[in-house]
Amino acid sequence: MDTIQAVVSVGEITSAVSTTVSIILWALALTFLAANLFWAAEMLTLPTRSSTDSIGRYGPDDIQVRVLTIGATDVVQKSVQAMPEELVDRHVIAEKPMDIDGATVHIVPDSFECEATRKGRALEWARRNVPCEKEYVLYIDEDSIISEVPEIPDADVIQFSERPTRTGSLFTYLAELFRMGFQLEQRSFSKMSIPLYAWGGGLAIRKDLEDRVTWNYETIIEDTIFIWAAAQLEDIDFRTVSTKFHNQAPPTITEMIKQRRRWIGGAVNDLDVLPRRYQALFMIRNFAWSLSPLVLILVVVPAVTNGPLINQHYLTVSLILTAFLYSWSILGLLYTGESVSTSISLLLLTPFVSLLHSAGALIGFVSPAQEFNTTKKIGSSDNSPGVSEKKVDETAD
Predict the structure, then answer these.
(1) Which DSSP state fits 319?
(2) Rounded to an integer, what is the distance from CA 34 to the centroid of its chain?
């Protein structure tokens, strides 16, 4: 009798564990599905080209370019030299003395104080102290390469498209291509009352809007916080344009993880800036992003478990989630027009690339970054084509 009871007890425990695991897996699968369906809905409602790139544009004469850096002379010089000659109003905002041919350099004084810190502090100092009579201020990162004259639609905030370039690690470059596929959702932000995020490597802002909103916020995601604040201050017109600015992929996996941690950590820290409905949306999206590598585990589970809730419906949901992962890889490859060899590499490595892309997000979600971290960039010691000698500069990304 005791033996029978022991067997029954073990069976009950096993059944309870199996049911609990099934419930957890279903909860994760449905969370992922909700976040991915929101992304799909964004993609299905993308503005047409005619509504994104409106008529009535502004040209180079209406733009002042500002390059933000700590003191990466080689990197900044390369970016300035690559600017189309029509962009004549060029300024470098730095925290260390540097000589740049083709641009006016401004050094943020140590004595300057405001609520913002690090990059936000530099942006706020420039807003107050760098004269600008142009309609727009175009902010780019120190490694941003403007390959063509940017045309600006008649809007308040204009987000230029991003095109990563490989520096060191192949895996970080593949992760950036993967991110490009997901980031196509930005084109739908013009239909939202509050755009979800901004990329500071190519962001043009009306000067009078910048002066009303300011950069004077304590945050480590200053570009995104600016558009969140602007959208709640007034009804802004946010547009994306197809012109691509080239930016370096993180040179190492470690640098990429730190970068992603800052992105998601900053969003977690500053969610109270948003209305509650947006806070809930961000929590679901951030949670799904940080745990996205588990999607493949959700697919494998039905093959190794007989949980009471693991059925055909669960399998269907898990396969849909896997399809989303690969769709971001495919869209990223189409967006960048990558080579056949790189495309094959990304498609074969998508599960691993997704893991790398999400590692920093997971760390940032569990332990949000509290300080601004610089992302190292590769700077050529010679700006001529074909140079092989390189060095790493500390930059403010």
Answers:
(1) H
(2) 20
Dist. CA 164–CA 90, nearest whole Å: 23
Is the Cβ–Cβ distance between 147 and 82 less than 8 Å? yes
Q: Choose among 163, 152, 140: nearest CA to 240.
A: 152
Amino acid at 375: T
112-168 per-position pLDDT tens digit: 999 998 899 999 999 999 999 999 999 999 999 998 877 788 999 999 999 999 988
Nearest by Cα to 155 from 62, 239, 53: 239
Question: Which run of H or of E encompasses 301?
Answer: helix 294-304
**Identity of the residue numbered 237:** D
* 294-304 helix and 2-44 helix, angle to the nearest 10 degrees: 140
- Distance (Å, rounded) from C-alpha 37 to C-alpha 108? 44
Q: What is the pLDDT of residues 20-67, one digit of tens each?
A: 777 877 888 888 888 899 999 988 887 754 444 554 578 899 999 999
Distance CA 37, CA 48 (A): 21
Cα Rg, the chain, nearest whole Å: 23
Q: At what angle do helices 253-269 and 170-183 cross, to 10 degrees?
A: 30
Strands (E), the chain: 63-68, 90-94, 104-107, 136-141, 145-146, 157-165, 203-206, 238-248, 377-380, 390-393
